[in-house]
Every structure is written in C-alpha cells, then in structure tokens.
Amino acid sequence: MRNYKKQKDHTKLICSVGELACLFTDSTSLENFLQRTVELIAEHMRSEVCSIYLYYDDTQELVLKANKGLNPDSIGNIKLKSGEGLTGLAFKEQRPICERCASQNINFRYFPGLGEEKFESFLAVPILRGATRIGVLVAQNSMKNYFVEEDIKILRAISTQLANTIEMTRVILSIEEKHQFGQETAAVKDLKFIKGKVGSAGLAFAEAVVLRHESGLQLYKQTMPSQGHTREDFHRAVQLTERQLEGFQRQIEEKLSDVASLIFTAQILMLKDKSFIDSMEILIQGGMSPSTAIIHVVEIYMKKFADIPDAYLREKSHDVQDIGIRLIENLFGDHQKTETCQEKIVIARELFPSEILKLSSQNVKGIILLSGGVSSHLSILAQSLQIPLMIISESQLLSLPRKTKILMDAEQGNVYVNPSQEIISRFEEKERARRIIKKQHRRVSQVTKTRDGTVIRLMANINLLGDLKNALASKAAGIGLYRTEFPFIVRSDFPSEEEQVVIYKKVVEAMPKAEITFRTLDIGGDKVLSYFPDHLKEENPFLGMRSIRFSLRHMDIFSQQIRAILRAGAGANIRIMFPMISSLDEYLKAREVVFSCVEALKKEKVCCHERPQIGVMLELPAVLEVIEDLAREADFFSVGTNDFVQYMLAVDRTNEKVADLYLPHHPSVLRALKKIIDAAGKFRKDVSICGDMVHEEKYLKCLLGMGLRTLSLNPTYILKIQAAIKKIDIPEAKKLTKNILTKSRLSEITLLIDGD
Ligand code: PEP
Ligand code: MG
After folding, report:
1. What integer pLDDT is reported at residue 243 of this predicted model?
2. How far apart are CA 691 and CA 375, in angstroms?
3. Ligand 1 within 6 A of CB of 37
4. Which of 60-64, 161-165, 181-185 has the lowest mean pLDDT?
5. For 657-744, where are the E strands, in sequence order?
6. 384 and 465 assigned to the same domain
7. Which of 189-198, 364-373, 511-520, 721-730 has the lowest average pLDDT?
8. Which domain holds residue 97?
9. What is the sign, positive or negative, of the torsion defined by CA atoms of 45, 46, 52, 53?
10. Comparing 310 with 16, which gets the higher pLDDT?
11. Which numbered atom of ligand 1 lies nearest the CA of 579?
C-alpha cells in the first residue's frame, strides 16, 4: 500500500493542470473538457475515482458534471443541496473534507446506483474563485486511509488553478442548457399557476415533457454518458425499436381503425432501410461508439430531409430524429427514457394531427400547446381522443425542467406547476366526481324536451369512429355532423373509395335507423393534407383552397368520396352536406356531382342510396343575401358557427391573440342566425347548428327562442345541454330573443345572455 501511495505524482499532476488550459481549447465539448480533467487528475493521483460537481445558483444544487470511476449514468443526475453529504458539506463550509472511511461519517449520503460504496477513502475540496463558489472536486479510493495531508494541499492547488476555467465552463454550459434544454430559469421557477384556454376538456396530473422538434437529439448529445456499448447492444436496440414502433402501429390500428393508416411506417421503414442502419454499422465497425454513430447518422439524415424543398418530406426530419432518440433510449435501457411521452403531459409549440394520434397511442395524459385556438381542429381531434388539451400563450412553459409535475385542469382552464398537496387533493376529488358524472351518461333521457314540452333533437358530432361509442352512450338522436376529413388528414395518401366505404359503413351500422349527416371533405384552413403539397403553400389557408372549393377543384377525389358515402349509405337514413358553400351556384354544382355519382353507380349496378338529402353547411356571411334562394333549393341547412363566427367577424379561430374578439353573441352573428332560421322555416327545411356555440349553455335560450329545434354537438356535452334545455320555457325564450335581437351593443347583449 505504501509503495502504491508513493507512486502518486503530485509534481507531474500540477504541470499537467497547466496543460489543461490547452486541453480546454482542444476538447470537443465542455463536458469533454471536464471529463478529460477528472481522468487526468485520477490518473495522476492514482485515485480510482475523481469527480467534478458544479454549483447552479438557480436551482441551488451541486450537479455531478464529470466523473471517472463511478457509474457514468450518474453524470448530470446526481444532485446535492449545499450541506448535503460530504461533498455538499465541503461546499457549504468551504473547506476540504478528508475521510479515511467515508461511509462511517454521519454526513455520508448514499446514492443507489452510483457505485461509490466500495470507495471508502474520500477527499473533497471546494472549487472557489475568490468568494465565488463554483463547485467541488472529489477524489475517492477503495483503499482506506488513502489520502494524506499532501493530497489535500495538491487537490486544493489544482482546484484553485482550475477554478477560472471551470467557472467559464459552468457559465457556458448553463447558458446552453437554458437555451437548448430549458433548465429552470428564475422566471420559470416563479411559474406556479397559468391560465389558458380549453381545447379539450378534462383533468390530468403528471410529469411534463417538452417536445422540441429542433433540439431533442441535441439533448441526448449533451447529456449522454460515454458508456461503452457493443455492436450487439446496437442490434438489440434496433430490433427493440422496430418492435416498439410496430406495437404502436398495432395499438393505433385497434384503437383508431379509421385514421390509423400507417402512421409509424415511415419510421419503421427507415429502420429497415439498409443504408440508414448500415451507415451506423460501418461507423461502429470503424470504432465509433454506437450512441455516437446513431447521432452522427441521424443528424446527416435529418439535414438531408430538412434540405428537401417539399414541405411534407421536410417534416419527415422529425420522424428521423424520433427514431434516433428511440434508438438511443433503447441502447441505454429504460432508465434513460427521459423524453418519451408515455403517461406524461406534453408541452409543445405546435403539433401535427398525426403527432396527436401518436401521442394518444402512448397514453399521454394531457397536451398543452403554445399556439392554436380552442376551435382549431387539433382541439377537435383531442376531444375525440379524450385527451385534455389547453392552449396557453406562456412560452416559458417550454423551458420547464424535465420531470416537473403539472396539474392540468382543462375544465376551468388552469394549469398548476408543481402543485401543492392541497391542489392535488382538490384534483383527486374532482377526478372522482368526473368518474361519477361519466357514469351518469346512462341517465340521459332518450328524448330531450324543454320545460314546456317542446322536443329538441340532440344529434352528435363525430370525428373519429371512436366517437360513436360516446354518441350511442349519450343517446344522441343521430349524427348531425360526421367530419369525414379526419381519415384523410392523418394518412400519408388519399384513402381509396373502398377504404372509405369500409369506414363510412361502420358509422352507418353503429346507428342503423338514425339520421346520419356526412359532411364532405373539409380540408384546408388548419386541416392540412400533408401529402398534398398544394396545400402547404397557401398564404391565407382559411381564405384559400378549403372545403368545397377543394372538392370541386379535385373532382376525382370528390366523386370518390360521394360514391363511397352513397354506397355505405344504401338502405340507411343518410344525408350529405357541403361545407363552406358561398353561393347557390356552388351548391348546385356540388349537388350535381351527387346526382351523377348516383347515376353512375346505378349504371354499374352497385348498391347505393339513390336519393339522399343534400344540404348546405352555412359558414360564410356570403350566404346571408341569398339565404332564401338556398333554402328553396337545399334539402336542409346546418350552421357551422365555428367558421361562421370566424368569417363574419374576421377573427381567425386558431389565433389565440384575437380569441377575445371571437364572439358568437355579436349582434351581427345573432341576427344572421335568426335570418337563416327564418328562411329555413319559410321553406320548411330542416335547420340545425353544429358548431361549438351549442356547447355553451348561456346561448341555448336565445337559440331556441329563435326557433332552432335541432342541435348537433360533441356527445360528451349532451348530458349537460339536455339538463339545461329542460329548464328552458320556449315562450319565455322567444321573448328574451326578441329583446336581444333589438340590441346593437355587445355589452347589452352580454347582460341579457349572462343575466338570464
Ligand atoms: C363549424 O365550422 O362550425 C363546423 C362545425 O365545422 P368545423 O369545426 O369542422 O370547421
Ligand atoms: Mg367549419
């Protein structure tokens, strides 16, 4: 032992420290610099372990940043408060601590998995620059009583010499961490309660995970321990990743058969692509570690995708990155799974519909978006998937540290960061109440009547086949709006006529006797077909090639859809309506397509519905001046208030900045609705509203007072709306409406609506 100690080369060590400054400039990264430092000190001191802890003012924690001899996974994960453990004590008291048998010291702090139990000799010296406390330098050895007085002096000298450089390292690292990975900033620390808009109601309490398309891989690059993996480990990771993706795909197919398509196939295919995996293999064979090889190749591919002019393919660079992250996670094993979304609350600046589906297959608890509006189609999709979703303009949320607990009350529109026990208890109570209310759906009456006995038809809006269950459970009288575009949106290509027939048949068969209204393809606006490049180029997509305009421009796609609806609807009570109709001509042109499809199918002797009701979805103010002409021709009207309000008031429904101007009770909107209802009445045509306006109890009285007798709504609202309708007396409602329609000021209308 004595001999071994004599081999310590203090003089050489001090010289080498001088060389460290040069090493710094040569290092590939700051972590690499710290790592080389501890390796060099360990080597010269003949200590089996050497570590550097850096102190972060914002979190008031010492974080293990470099280490030789302990479990490499612990880098970045071991965190101590000042005074905690022997290292924390050295820091707090700004003095060296030398222990011959560390585990016997009452201040010793044991970290499972760190692997330091066998290193009994312990020496820690604070790293200080003047009065500034930077961190702690620690050396450990398995031989008891290993460090002597001289070692303490030397380690102090080294720490002083290194203090400047290490401090610089810490500053740069923390800037990078803040910038890239959102370490907790002072402002974020203050983030406790945030108000937001509810896109999809519900409650969730879970850890947050911030999705950053642009930096997810970077995070791994910076935090990945330099753990040795073999080629076999790499192969195992590839196979595991493949199995996971196939599993997700299967899950999504079971849960969401209509929209499943091949959401994960792009990624599965990449894994099967020889050149992608082989490029990694070649690097590994050449001596590169598997994790570095994965990152290297994934970055090359991401760049390749990012350079592609086609926007859809460009987006695939996210998929490539996603594979990279999965491969690395699987290489390192479960404990490294820091960025998966399983059971978490996902925070993202924006998401694609297909991403929401992916997230749903990972059972995410909730979603917080930094952009979009509550009536955006992402919200609508989240409602169908029953994932609570909120839109919040607080971009600091993107900087939340990983594993921060979030409580989302997407009923009240509240988000709590690191909620107190009291708030958690309240949440648990609410959650219990919600479960009870869910069961009460069975208590929905078959027929909805007002207090005076007027029958009101409550129909369901459905987006995904999965919504049918809810529609049936809430005893909807039929489907007032089936948004047929969802199967189109999340796919990688147009669904064929046959595929559409299969999907539409499921809708018809779920409610064989009920009236089912198919809304033809409504894409454009915020519903982009990623595989249809034309769409991605529009400056003003809400004023562009949207809805019926798209269908009339692409007659082949339109005819295929109409044929599929007619075929699926054979013998059933189906209706077809066209979205975003702006003129009588447009309606007649679209209706003509239905007629000619019927004729063609009959000629082909294909069984189909030969005379469905054909209606107009009223969503543009342009219809108002020709409303009677339309009422004369059309079989029915359905008012899409989500769009009607948007276009009437020129308020983008997806833009939270103008959300306060999105006012369904604006006098122009209410008077327009009255005009529509009257025109329908005059020509004895059915009229309903299928926008979210009917989810709000406060508007019901006014709408029924105008003469509306059919509402189509998200089935989860039926119980609530039915209960509200039961309290309404039609003669009273008529009086109120009459009064409201005379008012020209919003404030007066608000008073009447709220005050009633
Ligand atoms: C509407 O605009 O009100 C509507 C029901 O259609 P969507 O929300 O799908 O645009
Ligand atoms: Mg609409």
Report:
1. 85
2. 9
3. no
4. 181-185
5. 686-689, 710-713
6. no
7. 189-198
8. 2-174
9. negative
10. 310
11. 6
Do 26 and 131 have their domain in common? yes
State the Cα–Cα distance between residues 46 and 625, nearest whole angstrom: 90
Q: Of the ranges 305-309, 406-410, 521-525, 693-697, which one carries the lowest mean pLDDT score?
A: 305-309
**Cβ–Cβ contacts within 10 Å for residue 55, how many?**
21
CB contact at 8 A, 518 and 482: yes
The answer to whether position 265 is within a domain reads yes
Provide the annotated active-site residues: 377, 690
Of ligand 1's atoms, which has the minimum distance to the CA of residue 481? 5
**Ligand in nearest proximity to the CA of 688:** 1
CA of 564 to the centre of ligand 1 (A): 22
Please report where in the chains the tokens 């005059």 appear, as a residue: 682
| Residue 445 pLDDT greater than 80, yes or no | yes
* Ligand lying closest to the C-alpha of residue 378: 1
415 and 322 belong to one structural domain? no
Tell whether ligand 1 has an atom less than 6 A from the beta carbon of residue 48. no
Q: What is the CA radius of gyration of the chain?
A: 32
pLDDT tier at 181, thresholds 50, 70, 90: very low
Which range among 25-29, 34-38, 289-293 shows the weakest confidence by mean pLDDT?
25-29
- The Cα–Cα gap between 591 and 588 comes to 5
> Both 568 and 544 in a single domain?
yes
Q: Tell me which range, 66-70, 360-364, 536-540, 643-647, is most confidently predicted by mean pLDDT.
A: 643-647
Confidence of residue 692 (pLDDT cuts 50, 70, 90): very high
Average pLDDT, the chain: 84
Report pLDDT for 336: 42
CA-closest residue to ligand 1 atom 8: 642
For residue 681, being part of any structural domain is answered with: no
Amino acid found at 127: I
Among 316, 336, 356, the domain boundary falls at 336
Q: Which of 522, 580, 712 to mutate to test the pocket of ligand 1 (most atoms within 8 A of CB)?
A: 522
Residues 318 and 362 in one domain: no
Both tokens of 432, joined, read: 């219990």
